[in-house]
Task: inverse folding
């Protein structure tokens, strides 16, 4: 087996000798030193940086998708030469030189590429495969240029990336590529472009292809290509559980009332003027309330049974904290203003210009009498995670229209009853009351056409209560806002991460936000 070695810009071939039907480690080291004159020692590592010694050398060389690095170190410990090679005679994916930065690409044959994908995916081999595919196809160079310049990809360039790789996948593996092929391409993408990796996902590449659900950008493109053919594959979608507000979460709350004591407490608190006493009774009936919320026959009347939510601020936060604990409860207020808000704004600046987006962005720069307060920058997230049509019967609404499903404005002096009658029985939303949008005096969470007062009169704290109300009252997300609220749930609060079904777009935006520097 021949291996190409590059040292200080000079390429040479080095043979891996065999002895007693095994690849000989010590003779190979001597051959490698021939290409690295005046170096007393060289080191051998695999693609993940783990040292390789004589005991495992032969086994690794014979593996399906292994690669090694041969290098020397200067006095500072800096890697100065490197050879990358695959353990299949005559087949190479790439050879890189740290000192020169040059890269020599040798095209992998289709047979070799299939061999690479038979076993568990190797990140180095996957990265090389994607690298070769992009450099061989028209438009591939543009992807590298944009990523190197911006440390990310726009939606348009991401679609180009997916189209190129799916075309390459079909060319090499047919119109119905095996699952491990798709996984390897997805792994190759996030290995070659690290800022596209979703840190919150188990592997980081699920938004490109998730083998458990069969979803992701690569899968969507494959389906589009296959749609008009007779060879459409039939796959069973094993979706992750759609964990969300209606999921019954286990709690370890103690000192809970039951039976007659519970009913007596519910009756007593309805007319009590003792707010601290009301809070204690609400806390003591928590488990009973959770049971009612998950009973279809009783959930619709929860505010009739517990009307003190309507005049006792802070009960939403209290119940949510009992569900998930203090740490989770404080995450939005703790992280949104300092971490997420500036990054969401930065990412939004790459969106296609539009009146609504421009107005929201301008509110971050200077106040005006007609736009929302800058702290309602959460609305911008809807433009990054726009609504999607749910089936052929349901039309798709715009991101601007979806914003109205999150927050509404009511001028001071307007009748609350009249306003809510006009709005109808929408999903929970935030009602902002004031003289103008930029100067709100009161915030309410609206549920079942009833107004629940928010504790803190700031936009950030009010939105925090709006989100929590979904879990406290076990109410599904507005269909048009599913991606929006799922992002808030899994990314900001960290609730049911890994078990909640997330769209590729949610994972993609999370990766962009995580890798955005402000």
Result:
């Amino acid at each position: 087996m021949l291996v190409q070695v590059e040292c200080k810009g000079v390429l040479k071939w080095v043979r891996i000798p065999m002895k007693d039907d095994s690849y000989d480690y010590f003779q190979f080291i001597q051959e490698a030193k021939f290409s690295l004159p005046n170096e007393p020692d060289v080191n051998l590592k695999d693609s993940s940086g783990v040292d390789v010694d004589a005991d495992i050398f032969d086994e690794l060389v014979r593996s399906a998708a292994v690669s090694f690095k041969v290098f020397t170190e200067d006095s500072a410990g800096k890697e100065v030469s490197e050879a990358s090679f695959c353990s299949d005679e005559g087949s190479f994916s790439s050879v890189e030189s740290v000192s020169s930065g040059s890269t020599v690409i040798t095209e992998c044959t289709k047979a070799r590429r299939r061999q690479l994908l038979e076993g568990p995916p190797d990140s180095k081999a996957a990265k090389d495969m994607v690298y070769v595919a992009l450099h061989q196809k028209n438009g591939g160079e543009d992807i590298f240029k944009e990523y190197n310049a911006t440390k990310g990809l726009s939606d348009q360039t991401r679609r180009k990336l997916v189209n190129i790789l799916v075309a390459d996948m079909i060319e090499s593996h047919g119109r119905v590529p095996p699952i491990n092929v798709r996984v390897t391409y997805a792994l190759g993408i996030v290995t070659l472009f690290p800022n596209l990796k979703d840190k919150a996902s188990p592997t980081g590449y699920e938004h490109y292809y998730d083998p458990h659900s069969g979803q992701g950008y690569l899968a969507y493109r494959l389906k589009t290509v296959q749609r008009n053919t007779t060879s459409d594959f039939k796959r069973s979608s094993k979706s992750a559980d759609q964990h969300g507000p209606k999921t019954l979460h286990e709690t370890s709350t103690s000192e809970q009332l039951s039976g007659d004591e519970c009913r007596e407490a519910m009756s007593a608190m309805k007319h009590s003027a003792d707010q601290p006493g009301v809070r204690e009774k609400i806390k003591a009936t928590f488990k009973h309330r959770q049971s009612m919320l998950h009973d279809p026959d009783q959930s619709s009347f929860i505010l009739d049974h517990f009307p003190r939510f309507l005049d006792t601020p802070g009960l939403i936060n209290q119940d949510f904290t009992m569900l998930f604990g203090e740490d989770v409860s404080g995450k939005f207020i703790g992280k949104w203003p300092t971490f997420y808000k500036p990054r969401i704004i930065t990412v939004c600046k790459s969106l296609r210009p539009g009146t609504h987006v421009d107005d929201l962005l301008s509110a971050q720069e200077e106040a005006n009498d007609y736009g929302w307060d800058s702290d309602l920058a959460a609305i911008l997230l809807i433009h990054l995670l726009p609504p999607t049509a749910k089936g052929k019967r349901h039309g798709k609404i715009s991101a601007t229209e979806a914003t109205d499903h999150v927050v509404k404005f009511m001028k001071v002096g307007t009748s609350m009853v009249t306003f809510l009658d006009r709005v109808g029985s929408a999903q929970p939303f935030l009602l902002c009351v004031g003289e103008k949008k930029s100067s709100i005096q009161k915030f309410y969470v609206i549920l079942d056409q009833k107004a629940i007062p928010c504790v803190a009169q700031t936009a950030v704290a009010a939105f925090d209560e709006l989100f929590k109300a979904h879990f406290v009252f076990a109410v599904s997300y507005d269909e048009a806002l599913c991606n929006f609220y799922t992002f808030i749930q899994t990314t900001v609060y960290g609730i049911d991460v890994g078990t909640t079904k997330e769209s590729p777009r949610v994972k993609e935006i999370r990766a962009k936000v995580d890798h955005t520097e402000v």
